[in-house]
Amino acid sequence: MLSRKKFIRQAALSAGALMAGPSIMEAAGYLTPLKLTILHTNDTHSRLEPFPMDGGRNQGLGGVAGRARLINQIRKEEEHVLLFDAGDIFQGTPYFNIYKGEPEIKAMTSLGYDACTIGNHDFDAGMENLAMQLTSHANFPMLVCNYDFAGTPMEYKTQPYKIFKKGQLKIGVFGAGIEGKGLIPDNLFGATKYLDPVQKANEVAYELKKFKYCDMIICLSHLGNQYKGSDKVSDEVLAKQSEHIDLIIGGHTHTFLDAPVIYKNKKGNDVVVNQVGFAGIILGRLDFEFSKFSGQKLAKSHTISVSQKSGG
């Protein structure tokens, strides 16, 4: 039993902590860093099966079965996992030529993708087809903030961003697409209006940070990694001209990065950029840690080879 003196002292300390507000009370929950694992692919190009064993450089690599085993194993090991794709889901094998994207979207749904963005080749069978495939077979959103699809079959089929809650974390994710003119035939791109990706990305990231209070902001980009001697917007350009983006998951240029590249944004803060080649032969993995006092940091990155034996 507490003495009267000890009881009064303990009650005063408790009351003081409550009066101090959330900062002290919440800090206790951040003594152990919060962990988030991000898995990602890009430019899978209808590669549902591994490359054939024909002596080629990529023989035996890729395929959704091997990717599924890896993803399922990581989900068993980690509490908070997000899975994203950076576009060009379609085009590249007979599966697309015959079925026009249905098995690709169904595979992504089965794998439990949380979101994707749109790539230029995802228009290859027309907007009507893409809209139908998403409506009929996708249980994940396609995110893009700089395409205005008003008056097209893709109107209302995409959204600019989505917020994911993982434990105590709020993760804001949005998409950015490449300029269609000269890359996507006019009859496929239709009346789509292309908007400045840097301007729109900064607008959306600002909203996610300042009004939605996200702990981390991710851009799924199909802009391309770098363009030497060109004024085209790339992930490098976007990273350097951004203010609130923490991570850019890239696509389009089929760039194999051995490790993520880190740029400084306009405020001098780090922006992590990663891309994992093409055809689903690599599964990207980024492990982040969040703490109350040191903020968010990239704790570890992996490039995981996908094969028929993936996952053991």
Explain the overall architecture.
This protein is α/β, with parallel strands linked by helices. It has one domain: Purple Acid Phosphatase, chain A, domain 2, CATH 3.60.21. 28% of the residues lie in helices and 24% in strands. The chain contains nine helices and 14 strands. Strands 4-3-2-1-13-14 form a six-stranded mixed β-sheet, covered by helices on one side. Strands 6-7-9-10-12-11 form a six-stranded mixed β-sheet, with helices on one face. It has a two-stranded antiparallel sheet with strand order 5-8. Strand 6 and strand 7 form a beta hairpin. The longest helix is centred in the N-terminal third of the chain and has 16 residues. The termini are far apart. The N terminus is likely disordered.
Present the secondary structure layout:
Blueprint: H1 4-19, H2 22-27, E1 34-41, H3 64-77, E2 81-85, H4 94-99, H5 102-111, E3 115-117, H6 127-137, E4 142-143, E5 147-148, E6 161-166, E7 169-176, H7 186-189, E8 193-194, H8 197-210, E9 216-221, H9 235-241, E10 247-249, E11 261-264, E12 270-274, E13 282-291, E14 295-305
Parallel strand pairs: 1-2, 2-3, 3-4, 7-9, 9-10, 10-12
Antiparallel strand pairs: 1-13, 5-8, 6-7, 11-12, 13-14
Whole-number count of domains: 1
Write down the overall geometry: globular
Per CATH, the architecture is 4-Layer Sandwich
Major β-sheet annotation: 6 strands, mixed
Radius of gyration, taken over Cα atoms and rounded to an integer in Å = 22 Å
Give the N-to-C terminal Cα separation: 57 Å
What helical percentage do the residues reach? 25-40%
**What spatial order of strands do you see in the largest sheet?**
4-3-2-1-13-14
What is the strand tally?
A: 14
CATH class: Alpha Beta
The fourth-level CATH homologous superfamily is: Metallo-dependent phosphatases
Indicate the structural class. alpha/beta
What's the CATH topology label? Purple Acid Phosphatase, chain A, domain 2
Contiguous low-pLDDT stretches (5 residues minimum) are: 1-28
Q: In percent terms, what proportion of residues is strand?
A: 15-25%
SSE string, helices as H and strands as E: HHEHEHHEHEEEEHEHEHEEEEE
The total of helices stands at: 9
- Mean pLDDT across all residues, rounded? 91
